[in-house]
Amino acid sequence: MLDAPIPLSSRYSYHTIFGDICKTRFNHLATRMSLIFTVLQAVLLAVVSNRSSSNLERALKVPLWVFLLYVSSLFIVVARKNYLHVQYRGYSNLLEVIFGQLVCMRAIVYESVHLVCSFLISLTYSDVLGLGTAVSSYTFSQCLLLYVWVLVPTLYTLQHCLFDLDRLSFNFEAHFQPPQQYINASLPRIITKSAIMTLSLGFVSPLIFFLIYSCWWVGFVGHLQLMLLSFCIFINLEFINIAFNAHMSIGCLHKGKPISSLSSTPIETLLTGLSSKKPFTKFTAFQELSFRATSADASLRVPIYHTRYRNTHIWPVILSECLATLQETNESVTNYLKSLENSMKLQDNPNYSQTLYDNVDEKLFGNKVAVNPAGFSSSQSRFPGSPPVLSQNGPSRKITLKDDNVLLRRNIPRDERGGFTYGSKNFISAPHAFDEPIITQETTLLKLTGALLRAARKQINLFFFPSAISSQDQQPQVSIIEAWCISKRRQAEKLVPQAVCLAECIISLMGLLINAIEEDPKGGVVSSVGEVLKCLERSVGALGRFADWHPEVNRKSTDTDGESPDVISILYDLSVSAFLEIVLKYNVLLNDLYLDDDVVKLSKWVLSQCSE
């Protein structure tokens, strides 16, 4: 029976500590970065502004310009904070993306925010671009208002919502990224993107002017002024968005140390983050676990190997959370493929070979394996991922495959918030208020509007996209529309909304097992190798089956993703690589363990792929 851990104070909750760090990063963005950017921009505008004004007049305008630009920056920052998320929205095709991202309260809020920012920025640049003297023309003034109040904010809102630019993207190979480095690397993309949107608007605007004002052209100089104004607005909006991403995606390190190190009980605090229901907090906790597991500094793993305060539950809870995360993804992918088979026949994989696992009884582990570092890649034949078949030669001495939850530790209860409880002790604190919405919870009108939009979207989804509506009584079915316009990449993002979190989980298990064999060979981490291999084998089976599925076989593909792999295919390759690394590291020890037949078969396959 596990010893009861020392109860933790609420201030040691991972979510609370991480929330405080996010506040610090947010304040740094809203005060220092935004203010420096606006002051430099205002000074530059004063230098290049109309020379007919005296130096004193231009100097007096600088505080006004700083105020206008700074307010517009704050509008963007607050709106981004309100809709910050790290998981995919979960749209399986282009029609769902257009409908779900535009028919929502979020799109209305962003349109309003971008409209106000466009107006404030245009006021700042009016003197520099000579718009103050050009508005004497009634036609030009009308086109200018249309540009500032409608065209520019609408175009930016459309691209922001359709591409879901609220989502913070992370690379599972990096645990820390300085904001300055992120912004500097993004500067060419900011300029290129702003130029593309400016040119697109420049080509479309004459047609819009003709439809509204019956005027095709406002003159070469006037059209150039409008394009320069839109370019300046796009640059400002894009820079603030990039700066926000840079400060909110710094990583799991604070001043060079893991976030949990700010607590007196770092690993116990880290556990509260792994079990958190907040996606951003949970992801950051797994990111830190991966950092500890793969770090060259062994002292970061010592608290996991050697427990303190009689907290012998640390590794079991870490293992349970990792296996639960993997199992949730396996079930999600498997259930979708079953629902797909119920609606349209999934073609069998022609590359599947029944002779893949011949000579299963042959001694597998303890042999010298000639590993070709470049010989095992995603271009090689994939493990087919077919459902496991139970042995027909009597009862198996291995773990039964009928129970999909066999690896999950059920003796650790959870409370209503998802935190682990031991007896009467709650192991997670109350949620923090940092990432709660700001704008959409202020007025009753906004709440009512959002509820009506959600109700209308649910009814339309129920008719056109029934698989988007989850039901506990029956499996979701795929409609004809979904089957025709299905996108493998977007469907993968829907099934695994936190793909990077899952990648960090796989890397964490692999790193801890590989390092533990030398750093703590007789500890609990090494003894869990069988459980980890079994769960990874199931991941390889479920993810591999989806990776081998090609919807374009039955129809002309409407997906324009090119050759870029989907997130499940990437996770499949990562799972196989992790499985292989563990098998190679535990080559001799695995001969003395009782392993499931499917684990032995997969081990033989990956080793054969390495030897080729």
UniProtKB/TrEMBL annotation:
Q: Tell me which stretches of the chain form a coiled coil.
A: none
Q: How does it sit in the membrane?
A: Multi-pass membrane protein
Q: What InterPro entries has UniProt attached to this entry?
A: Nucleoporin_prot_Ndc1/Nup
Q: Where is the composition biased (Polar residues)?
A: 376-395
- Please provide one cellular component term from the Gene Ontology annotations of this protein: spindle pole body
Q: Which GO terms describe its biological process?
A: mRNA transport; nuclear pore organization; protein transport; spindle pole body duplication; spindle pole body localization
Q: Where are the transmembrane segments?
A: 33-50, 62-79, 129-152, 196-219
Which stretches of sequence are listed as region Disordered? 376-397
Mind listing the UniProt keywords for this protein, alphabetically?
Answer: Membrane, mRNA transport, Nuclear pore complex, Nucleus, Protein transport, Translocation, Transmembrane, Transmembrane helix, Transport
Q: One of this protein's Pfam families, by short name? A: Ndc1_Nup
The subcellular localization recorded is: Nucleus membrane; Nucleus, Nuclear pore complex
A GO molecular-function annotation:
spindle pole body-nuclear membrane anchor activity
PANTHER family according to UniProt:
NUCLEOPORIN NDC1
Family indicated by similarity: Belongs to the NDC1 family.
User: What is the name attached to this protein's record?
Assistant: Nucleoporin NDC1
